[in-house]
Amino acid sequence: MNPTTAPRLPTLLRQWRSALSGSLLLGSLLLATAAQATPAFSVTLPASYTGGNQTGRLLLILAPADQQPEAEPRALVAFGADAIPFFGMEIAGWKPGTQRVVNAAAFGFPVQSLRDLPAGKYRVQALLNRYETFHLADGRVLELAPDRGEGQHWNAKPGNLYSPPITVDLNPGQRGTIKLTLSAEVPAIPEFKETPYVKHVRIRSERLSKFWGRDIFLGAFVTLPWGYDTHPEARYPLVINHGHFPDGPGEWRETPPDPNLKPVYSQRFRIEGYNRIEQQLGWELFQAWTAPGFPRVLMIEIQHPTPWYDDSYAVNSANNGPYGDAIQYELLPEIERRFRGLGQGWARFVFGGSTGGWEAMAVQMFYPDDYNGAWVACPDPIDFHHYMTVDLYGDRNAYFIDNRFKRTPRPAHRDWLGHIDTTMEENNLWELALGTHGRSGDQFDVWESVFSPPGPDGYPRRVWDKFTGEIDPVTVAYWRDHYDLSHILQRDWPTLGPKLRGKLRLYVGDMDNYYLNNAVYGVEQFLRAANPPSDAVVDYGDRDEHCWNGDHTRPNAYSRLRYPQMVLPWAVERMLMTAPKDADTRSWRY
Length: 590
Hints:
- The protein is α+β, with helices and mostly antiparallel strands.
- The chain is 26% helix and 22% strand.
- The strands form seven sheets. The chain has an eight-stranded mixed beta sheet with strand order 13-14-16-15-19-20-25-26, with helices on both faces. Strands 2, 3, 5, 6, 9, 10 and 12 form a seven-stranded antiparallel beta sheet that branches. It has a three-stranded mixed beta sheet with strand order 4-1-11, with no helix packed on it.
- It is globular, with a radius of gyration of 25 Å.
């Protein structure tokens, strides 16, 4: 049996509930369960570990022996067509020198219990995603996994403990316990090495530190314009490239491509040697950046990870704290002070795709006077009538299309031909196996951490039940009023509209893998008819996937690596058209 076809937990629960109504069927199920062996795994926290008692999420990962044998199982955990079995359990007060047993009670994906794991040969690995205790200013005490410089990747988080992979044969009727030891630790992230063009800034945020009850830092990579040192009188516009946690400037390379680089196949784009393409286009950006006539700006990428995700979505929220204000009023002024920024709204622009696209639109809306334009590509849901494939306002269930006679699963991810490889239910159960209370570090959980108020347990309030998909209208109402960008545009347009005129450019492929084009359709309908006029640009890529950004001349695999070449000429054009009469539009144009 293929692991991806194993029964999901709601299916098993329905089977058990039906069984309780008939003693014969119940007896049959009990006999079948008794005859089926359940493997157990004993995981040891070594006595030599000096970090003290541990709290966190213990994950047991089983990769079929023939599936990417060169990679460790912890690198293969996914929700799509290549999903492998893994199981998780909460750990508290784990003392070095003792063991914890992962058995049929551990919740997993896509097989929900070790009891249902198909026989076969597996490479097995255990990993502990370590939590720390946070004492928030509002009195909440939460157990969360802090970012440790890696951008909230549990399988690469420094300090996380894991076992070396072992290969085991699991067979029907097999008994006994398989032993694993967390003898390895993910090393620290090396420090970034600055170049003459790229500088790294890191500041302590007073606002965020107060909220979290501990020191919280913001970082940014600042790419300096050509001629920065030889034009000391110049002051520069600032352009933010919003997106996921950066470990350096994206799509940037100051040396020619490595001719000896071993080509790597991109499954996403179906291109052999895509890593070589990335190096080539990074080098092309550097050549353009240093050529005559290219816009001279400060281009920055921000590091703002939270204990929930690899970034905060750049807005204030009840669970993350005042990240929007911290970025706007602490980080950006410091960057502009250090690197001679103009420091005025007419000379600031934002762009980004996916998460970065939502952030670009959100900060332009929430701080409308502080930015002069937002290039918004393939944004995360900007209209909650189209929260991917769920209408949060009209649907009752996020996992199944409403019908009294049948259960049609809602899709969550497709390819450019519409072929589906995961559903909303599967995607959410995958996250639940990674962590409870919104601690998976992945997409649906992070949206709740940003959009939701705290729940009764202090963690983000669920917008729907993770097991059943039943939508909570109370949470939805909070989301609508605070983070549904389409709703906020329409609600506040009389005052917001004049401040956004000509500033919004939205781009998305009409076959976006996550159905994000649907929300853009809703926003476009309003922007086209808005009064006062929006003068917004909205465009779609024919059959383009996530994350198309407005380039009709190149395939998505290439255009996504060319944001600066696309955005910056528009930014300069708009600045020159809208700058105040006494503005400095000369010193940076050399």
